[in-house]
Amino acid sequence: MAELQLRDVRKSFGAFEVIKGIDMEVKAGEFMVFVGPSGCGKSTLLRLIAGLEEITSGILTFDGQVVNHLVPSKRGIAMVFQSYALYPHMTVFENMSFGMRLAGADNKECKRRVRAAAELLQLTPYLERLPRQLSGGQRQRVAIGRAIVRDPKVFLFDEPLSNLDASLRVATRIEIAKLHRSMQGTTIIYVTHDQVEAMTLADRICVLRDGVVEQIGTPLELYERPNSVFVAGFIGSPKMNVLSGSFAQPYKAHTIGIRAENLQIVDQGGWAGSVVHSEMLGSDSYIYVDVGVGEPVIVRENGTSRHQPGEVVQISPDHSHVHRFDAAGRSIGRAEMSGAHHELQIIVKL
Ligand code: ATP
Question: Ligand 1: residues within 6 Å at CB?
Answer without folding.
Answer: 13, 18, 36, 38-44
